[in-house]
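Morning, I've got a small favour to ask if you have a moment. It would help a lot if you went through both lines with me. I owe you a coffee for this, so here goes:
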Amino acid sequence: MAQQNSLLIADKALERSHVLMINSIEAPGMPLSLTELCIFEAQASEQEQAKSFALVNTSPGCWAATDACFETTVTCIVKSDDGQDIGLIHLDVEETADGHSRAIELCDGDVQITMLWKCLDITSNQGDGSDDVAELFNHRGLDCFEEFQATGELSTLQDAIFMLLQAVNLTAPGHTNLPSRVNNLASLLAKRFERTGELSDMAHAIQLQQMVVDQIPKGHDDLPGYLGNLGSSFTLRFQRMGDPLDLSRAISMQQNAVDLTPVGDAALPTYLTNLGGALARRFEQTGEISDISQAISVQQRAVEATTQGSSKLRARLNNLGHSFTCRFQRTGELSDIAEAIALHDRAVHLTSRGHSDLPIHLDNLGGALIHRFKRTSDLSDLSRAIEAGQRAVDATPQGSTDLPARYSNLGHSYTARFEQTGDIADIDGAILMQQRALKLTPAGHNDLPTYLSNNGVSLSCRFVRTGSLSDITDAISLHRQAVDLTPYGHAELPSRLKSLATSLADRFTSTAETEDLKSSISYYKAAATATVGPPRTRMDAAKRWARILIQQYPQSPDVIDAFDRALALVASIAGLEKTVGGRYTQLKGISGLALEAAATACALNRADKALEWLEQGRCLVWSQINSLRTPLDNLRRRDENLAQALEDVSRALERAGASRAQAHVDMPLSQKISVEDEARAHLDLARKWDELLKTARAIPGFESFLMQSPCSTVMQNLPESGPIIVINVDANRCDALALLSGLDEPLHIPLPNFSMEKASRYRTELGSQLRGHSLRSRDLEARGVRPTRIGNQTWDSPVHKVLRGLWKEVVKPILDALGFSKVDEAAEKVPPRLWWCPTGPLSFLPLHAAGIYRGSDQDSVLNYVVSSYSPTVTSLTDRVKNDRSHSSTAQGLFLTSQPSVPGAPPIPGTTKEMEGDDITVEECLERMKEFGCIHLACHGSQNAAEPLRSRFLFHQGSLELGTILQSNLMHADLAFLSACQTSTGQETLSDEAVHLAAGMLAAGYRRVVGTMWSIGDQPAEEVATSFYEYLLDSIAVSSSSTIIIDDTFDTLSMIPPPTRAPVIYVGYKLPLAQFKDMMDEIPSYKALRELEFDGIPDEFVPSVYARWRRKLPPTLRSRAPQILGYWRDDESHSGPCDDVMCLLRYTTYKGEEQYRNPDHPDAFKFRVEKDSDVRCRDAFIRFFRSQGVTSVTAVDFTYAFVAGKHPKDRVPY
């Protein structure tokens, strides 16, 4: 206790019965600044110096004297801030025992000052009774402290400190109670530091607490408490001074306290709370997300362990709420800020009016509300925030060290309201509040840069409104000070640099001062290239850096660096530590950045950069999923353990991203704790993944492992069957990038006649038509765009206008630039292949149906190319590069239809695509694992808010995309999604391909057929029929090893183009041999292959049989092999015409009752009733004639025949 004299801790017990303690000095209405009280004892020797005590201004005209107490006659001298003596007073303990105040003799007679004191009566005896007195002082001091906590009266805290000081003085060295009494005194000194900001109090508190910790033996029951208190004092000093070493010590002490305390101990919640608070402070300093996540976790456990009704509950709720607010500021997760507000509301509710903790609870509630308002623009949040902030200011005592923060926060809320309403009174009020905060904040305070920055932002806002150059000049000055006071590596530095850059840019717009422009660019660059701080802040700085360069120096090479930096930060904003839904939430405000960058690159003639940026900044989530599924064979050959570790972590990350639960306000606390634990485990996995990637990239030859491919690499793996067309749509310009095999760089095709405005208008017009025709669900009515006659009608529908605009302004200029010409149908040439990769609002428009379908100049994309889509170039080139073989055990086609799902309109047309069943979701997943190809004829439902919850509706439940992604579909190849809106994107995430088709690609399917909007039963049936007919025909006539699935759509000449517009194909190509094996897995088809048809070549049989069986009613389909078996055994049939006619007669069956021949019960007829029947009849006739069967005529369709008899025995009907 060598330092004890500085704290008036004596070596022996008191001998007097009275002690006088000075409470305050008052000078109402006097313009004074008192700072020091010097006390000279009358009996002191000449060598002893006066004791000096700081005076703290607690309210206007009132100062408190800290620790000023004495036991004898003294002379007190009051000094001002310039060191001048103001006045003096002589006091004797015994003579003043009955008084409480006296005027001070002043050096200046014009000023009146009064000193107030309190005389404490101490009745004690020397010797054995001294410890009883010490205990009495200890208890009385703690009682006073409780009163202070309830009232906030500083004088009560002064009394408490004095009592505890005497308790320590009266306790003999080595006494068992000495550590606890010293600890109590130190805790109250720390509390007074919180109130007054007097650094000497905190220095003394830490000194005493460190002494206790050093002297207490290891294993002592009280050691965790002492460690916790010392840690809390280090945290408080860090908050004041900002020394990172203090914070590290605080966390270490608090963690040791927690580790030494058994579960269930009553003190554990306190230690957990303090540890969480220290971690939250470090997060605010460094921005390390793991710190705030751990803070929330331990604080939740503290709240859980706190009994209802405990006086400590409200503070723990407040601390936990503050941590959630901190995390929201970093992540933007609305669930975090909702939880913060709920916790703060509860803390305020539990705090009585007048309680000393009420101001901080109100202040934090107001802060959380203003943060949510800025995200949601809910005006009720803004009103509540200002109300809470004002109440917090009103309830905070003058002289409190918390008052500057309250003023600054209230000013921040006023600024937010000004930005919403434009009321100049609000911004004036904001500036006034923030200036008060600055005036009360001492130099060197840790929060000073924040107050400076807030004031600068408000002045900048007023400048934008009023144009006052003095405001913007003052704002720049404040921002410079804030930047200068912020240490390098602080998480807030990028934000303050960005604010300074913005203010300089604002002044440049008014003054055209070149130095302001250069400085603005420099500070934006510094913020963007900072290594710490919220990624979103740094990305925004990079965008501003790029934009100001484009405006002022459009040819500057730094534009490339700026966009490089901005796009590199996108992956950090939507990192793997978040769920897939959370990543999409983060990306909503970023969509369009890659398009802006690509437009700039095109303007700079950097088509290579445009492609790289589009690939880097679009479809990020699917790219992340694909990266997690990348084969590691090459790495495994170099380092098997590393490859296995990457594989294990990637699988765990994918599971966590797809299935991790999300907390919500109404969830029980125990479940919230579990969710937080999962989130922290997810965060640890993401960090481990990054570490493993660094290790892998350190291996020679793997430097670019799982990194974004440069343009040169992308161009080396293009499909040879046709070009990929990337179309960039930006507000500044529109361009196409044509990627052709054999070229080194993309071919740049400007689109000067197209614009973002036109794309958005086309999307709006098409969307209006879709909604007007209820094209959002699949039911009995046809929901494709209604077929219309192509004659000489003059009326042009909005849909045709959209398709014509796309043709003239986008598609035709691209085809012309590529040199594509119309395909000669007479020559039966197959059109070339082309993949579309649109961006922005163009992603919602049917480029594959673009054309002019009315008038004399009809033309369309169908006459030139076969269209497919790919969400990104990389998703296609990866499949070209990694064209895998298919397991013979997984070949085959799994088909299921779900025509009558509960809660959804019936879709009976699916039964014409295939027979329905009652398969469960689990059984469907098992079949998807077994078969490489699937056909789902059912309802599809897209969830824009939670994309992984998009689903296919089955009779017995829903098959969600997230569930599919979690399944290990090793053999996934083709997915035919005969469901509605399976490739419809989300407008707020136009560049993320948030739809079922892209999700199936991410799940591993190499090619997907889907719909851009709802499709009716009849068009869906026709598309599915033609799709498989074409594949079967291709099997018969193709000698190549692959089938291009998109050729199917070119055969749909009988379907009006607008009707087939919803259907698109996404992916690559299907191996022919695989499709043969796939069809062999269908039992009835396999039976047909075993038949021998005289005169009909074997390769024609599959096509004929497929058409025939699909036209059979469900009751006869299962008998198809037996029906055909009859003709196999009949020796009387004589040739190809007879055999084909037998099949054809069954093909034309339409119902069991209405089409029976009454004279021949077993006979069926074909009736030509409507245009569709005529088209169907003519199509069959054309097909048979193309195969050399020329004797089939239209007359044949007017007869019926008797089943079981030879076709020559026809019966006229």
Notes: The chain has a mean pLDDT of 78.
